Amino acid sequence: MTDHVTEPVLSVDDLTVSFPSEQGRVTAVRGLSYRVSPGEVLGIVGESGSGKSVSSMAVMGLLPPQAKVTGSIRFQGRELLGRSDVELSQIRGRRISMIFQDPLSALTPVYTVGDQVAEALLVHGAQSRQAASARAVELLDLVGIPGAARRAKSFPHEFSGGMRQRVVIAMAIANDPDLIIADEPTTALDVTVQAQVLAVLATAREVTGAGIVLITHDLGVVAGLADRVQVMYAGRTVETAPVDEIFYHPRMPYTRGLLASIPRLDTGPRQPLIPIEGQPPSLVSLGPGCPFAPRCLLVIDHCLTTEPDLAPVSDTQRSACHRSGEAAPPAPLVSGVECYNTVSHSRVVLRVEHLVRHYPVRKGAILRRQVGTVRAVDDISFELREQETLGLVGESGCGKTSALMEILNLAAPAHGRIEVLGTDVSALDRRRRMQLRRDLQVVFQDPIASLDPRLPVFDVLAEPLRAHGVATTEIRRQVPELLRMVGLRPEHAGRYPAEFSGGQRQRIGIARALALEPKVLVLDEPVSALDVSIQAGVLNLLSELQTRLGLALLFVAHDLAVVRHIADRVAVMYLGKIVEIGPINAVYTGPQHPYTQALLSAIPIPDPAKERARERILLTGDLPSPADVPSGCRFRTRCLRYAALTPGLQSRCEQEEPAREQRGEDGHESACHYATAHAVL
Amino acid sequence: MSASITDPHSTAASPGSPAQPLIEGRSGRGRLVLRRFLRHRLSVIGLVCIVALYALAFLGPLFTPWGYAEQDPTAYLSPPSAQHWFGTSQIGEDVFAQTLRGLQKSLTIGLLVGIISTTIAAVVGTAAGYFGGWVDRALMWVVDLLLVIPAFLIIAILSPAFRGKTWLILVVLLAAFSWMITARIVRGLTLSLREREFVLAARFTGVPPWRIIVRHILPNMASILIIDATITVGTAILTETGLSFFGFGVQPPDVSLGTLIANGTNSALTFPWLFLFSGGLLVLTVLSVNSVGDGLRDALDPTSARGSRRRSGD
Description:
The structure holds 2 protein chains of 2 kinds.
Chain A: E1 10-21, E2 24-36, E3 41-45, H1 52-60, E4 68-75, E5 78-79, H2 85-91, E6 96-99, H3 113-123, H4 129-142, H5 148-151, H6 161-173, E7 179-183, H7 191-208, E8 211-216, H8 219-225, E9 228-233, E10 236-242, H9 243-248, H10 253-261, H11 301-305, E11 311-312, E12 318-319, E13 348-363, E14 369-385, E15 389-393, H12 400-409, E16 415-420, E17 423-424, H13 430-439, E18 440-443, H14 457-467, H15 472-485, H16 502-514, E19 520-524, H17 532-549, E20 552-557, H18 560-566, E21 569-574, E22 577-583, H19 584-589, H20 594-602, H21 608-613, H22 640-644, H23 647-655, E23 661-662, E24 669-670
Parallel strand pairs in A: 3-8, 3-9, 6-7, 7-8, 15-20, 15-21, 18-19, 19-20
Antiparallel strand pairs in A: 1-2, 1-4, 4-5, 9-10, 10-12, 11-12, 13-14, 13-16, 16-17, 21-22, 22-24, 23-24
Helix pairs in contact in A: 3-4, 3-6, 4-6, 6-7, 14-15, 14-16, 16-17
Chain B: H1 2-12, H2 28-39, H3 41-59, H4 95-131, H5 133-148, H6 151-162, H7 168-176, H8 180-194, H9 197-205, H10 209-220, H11 222-245, H12 257-264, H13 273-300, H14 305-313
Helix pairs in contact in B: 1-3, 2-13, 3-4, 3-13, 4-5, 4-7, 4-8, 4-10, 4-11, 4-12, 4-13, 5-8, 9-10, 11-12, 11-13, 12-13
């Protein structure tokens, strides 16, 4: 793997970056050192605010002018710090290139992608314009854009997110760089697309032989691609080692905590996660001790007074912990929350039958004629029982959120039937609908957008109670109770949402949803905007509340690992249809629908050995537009099983839409003409 | 003291009038906003100034023997003296009495027009944006119509009907022609706020639409409403002068700050007392209203919290 003899492409020594802020100077990076050898993939892992992006921006020389940077950044033996922007531009884009997180804003909307890739070549003194264009097409082909010559003339908005990220990668490798910095390259993408892009990134390394710095918060991504991993916390490296060591023999308690807090696809359901308690420290005024000490379970007095240095624990592994020299303590670092669930197959609290939600597409300014239909939700049926958790998973644009909104509206759907607690919602009058709202509550994805920034927490929590005519004295009694229930302090009631961290805000959102003691809680991606260590705490809270309050949860997510952790049953959606539904274990261990199989195989597992040995089902192409769904089976355009069929058998997929049929035990149903169970984990 | 603050507070706070129903006394937000407002020193001074101006306007005339329409044949254009504190005009009117009389009118006109026009804008804009559909179309049709019809034309047509009636009609007319652009802006903001998750959350909890508008949508656009209201206060006082040309509103011998300023401008350099006092009071009024508006905006905006706290900590 790592060749220690060769000179590193990049060596960063004692890098410190600080910014002025309202509260004082924020030291975002504190004495960071690392090296990247040619052809090596260094994974930098850390939560938001750990300084991982800032340090890579420092390497690129892209920090704002008010940032103070000290230390040394040497690229191929040449010092980069202190060089002018003009000098750096000679290196940037040619010798070092960068892949940003958001492929939407990384491309200029007014130029064709071919021109943009060609520009990267021309700027760095490439040949003629024609040669550059020809090379651009080659590069686009290399990163797997079908019909590259034709697509090079398209504009960025005509590409999907995954395709755009491929274009960005094509630009990054255009000049055969020696170092590629990829800052969260797949965070904005769906899992099946993420798998494709990671594969392209691996190709890019082979083609260019460049060293890659892969910055991510997702330990699974690192496990599959990186050779060496560096874990960052509060602006410093706390542990660095070859990828296997990090995953199998972590020494630093923070690394261990991170590994324990991620929901994994390869464990059984309903395993309690072990969250890291507390919040990352503020980087404005750090005390003398180890910054992780307040959250650490192995803390000793020494930790509170002296910050540990990054010290070698073996030939290849270095760790910043006073206790890393000691033998690894036994596994359970914390007593996780016990979350078990006895699903009593009791009454159905939410029943959805043949629900349809179509949006008309109109054209024309005066005569708005309908030119098409977006089939956001197209005939879905499922039921949710008391105290049960149903996970609804699928990629973005598959209609999960549309289905939720349709349920939450409590109005008669265009087609089909929605029953909440045995009541058909289409037959509700205003008063009954209001009563039913008490029993059906929602938690949204974005903890920032879902709380009114101008409303103090007390009023946020009091609002549903007031709307349902609860007396003021009763509200005053209940609000502190609600705060305690979600693990916040009652004195937080007088603060505005902006004063809380993301995880705390999500807890406030959950408290608001629970204020009316609902029976059904609908969660729309409740943890996808949170850091892993925080996410675990919120998931545990949800499990615990469910057991305590007897809630039924409808849990919408794109992350199958999270769903495996929390759900009893799972429904997989593709283009407005449920393609597979069943008990969590049955679906995860023996998925029948080819889409479910592809989805499961695309999710990275934070275990390097398993990750390398895994069979990957890489889907080709992107999700078709819901305004123009394929005939017959909707998945056939991307289906590998369809592709392997003989033309005679294929015609059935083209003409006949597969119905959902029970093919396993306990109501494991799938909608595929040629369904066969195939374990992918 | 506290009584004199809380009473005018209700009038002075009203530049952000839409936010006012929220101050429900005991509610968490009400108390918090009040506390944060009182922490803002400059805005409390502004509030005291407005109270003082009102007191001056209505109590001041008690201390001078001259009436605003009375003429002193012994003093034409005399500079400020013990007899005439602010001097006299060309025909011997006491400028102090006139200025106070003008201040009474102009303060009320300015504040009322500011409040009324912003309230109309807020109500129409949020209703159009939030409910959409035919409500939106109908309201926006009215807005567009009022925008293209020249206000002076309508006033010229209407003026015979109102001749000799109370000057408060002026307030209504001024307000009626100054809310449309703000309403359009408010509608646009509402359209984007309506889709935000916290509004959805409130809707799915069963909070009725008008309450969502008052509790969630208006406070989130409070800044622009407050700025709009404070600007309108100043412009209304001056626009009133223009309307008076049409033989409308404040007619001689009655005066307003606007007419005093208009008459005094010509002799601002030669006989400065004709212009200076009325002009100075106008500036003071607008400044006070602005600082109250600033304080209210900061009090409602949690992100400015640190700033205001630090300032008071100095």
